[in-house]
Structures are given as structure tokens and as C-alpha cells.
Amino acid sequence: MTMMMVNGCDLNVEIQGEGRPLLMLHGLGNNMASFRSDIEHFRTTRRAIAIDSRGHGLSGKPDHYTLKDHVDDVVGLMDALGLETVDLIGSSMGAYVAQGVAIEVPRRIRRLIIVAGKSHGATSSSAALLEKHADELKGSTVQQQRDFLYSKILAPSTSERRVEILQLLTQNRGLPSTQTEYTAAQQAIRNFDFRPQLAQITAATLVISGKYDPLNPPAEGIEIAKRIPNATFVLFENSGHLPRIEEQARYYALADNFLNAAAV
Prior knowledge:
The chain is an alpha/beta fold and 264 residues long.
């Protein structure tokens, strides 16, 4: 891992492997460690690159930033690493950022995988779910709110791996428990709408949603796929918000086939 100054912010970056660059973007409240298994998998055939998004992990934590800052960070990192084109995977919040990047620099994104994403939102999906359950969460701490979210995001069929996955999520939390930093991260993904611009994306695109995702349900993924030219939508029948982990073998097989399909 190394620290790089990008777009005025220190970003923690990890690079492993050789070959076509594959950049991976994590979700809200996580960090690059949530892609640990993905790095190990993809590094055997690709140059796997993961970052701690600003406000997360070991990266800088400004008091205020926006989704556009996240997008600019990715483009700036590509420039800093001398990467003219990349393949891009974004999960949850990372899927929002990935869409923004593919819109901002369409010719530089070769293949795009959007996992558990949405194309627009007045607030973060986790904030919306917490608001829905505001009465039962009244007076709860940030930690208690996170625990509540983690109790809701997995599919019923994931029950046999629930303890393992929740332990992994706990280890990979990317935000300290300060209310200021948590609020800044939440506010960065408020009031965005990529729908009018999704048709500008030229990358071959795979959109994956989990059937039981309470944060970004399948309808959100279907909408993304309909608006991006020639995008493919795949529903993971036994997943909630974490299809990359809940149905990992299927995810890797699908991702490998998709990423290799147009290899040159």
C-alpha cells in the first residue's frame, strides 16, 4: 500500500499483479479491505488496483466533500498512475462513483461492472433505510445504526454464512466512529442523478443486483442497465446487498468472463 496525493487529498492505494489495470471502488463506510478477496482473485491475471476513497480507511478525511470529488479522485489517480484506460468495478457507493467516472471520461473506461448500485438518490441508501426505521432507532449511536444496517443487508439464504460475513464487514469498516466524518461521508452522496447522462457511457457494462437488497433493490440496477447502451443486467437470486461476497464463486466466474470477453 502507498499514499498518493490526488485532487488535493491523500489517497491510500494498493496495487498488485500485472496486466490490464482493474480499478475497484468500495462502498460507504468500508475501505479497500472489502475488496481483499477480489484483489487476490484478480491479481493473478490483472493489475488489481484498490483505493480507500476519501473520508474512508487511511485516506484523508476532509470535513466536506462531494460525489464529484470522488469521481475526480479516480480520474486523478488514473492520471497519476499513467493509466490511459482501465476496467472499473464499483460496489454500492463505489457503483455511484464508477458511473460518474464512466460519464466523465467515457473513452478511458473499457469495461464497467456495477454491483448493488443505483443511478440517483436524494440521500444515501443506508440513510434512507435508517429513516424508514427511525422510531425503533431513536436515540441510537452511530455504532448501533451500523449494526442495524448490517443485520438487514444479507439475503435470507445467506444465513449459514451470516456470522462470517458480518465479521468480515466489521473488520473492513472504513470510517471512524466520529459523527463529523460519518456525516461528511453520507452528505457526499446526497442529491445526485446520473440518469440523463447514462447514455453517454461507452464502456461495455455489466450490472449486478441482489434479489434481497434492501438498500439498492433490483429495480435500481434494471434502470441503470436500461439507460446504458448495450448494458447487461444479472440478478443474483441468493444475495442481498453483497452479491460479490454472498455468491462469490458465481460473481468471480461472471466477472472473469465479462472482463475477458473483449480482451485485446
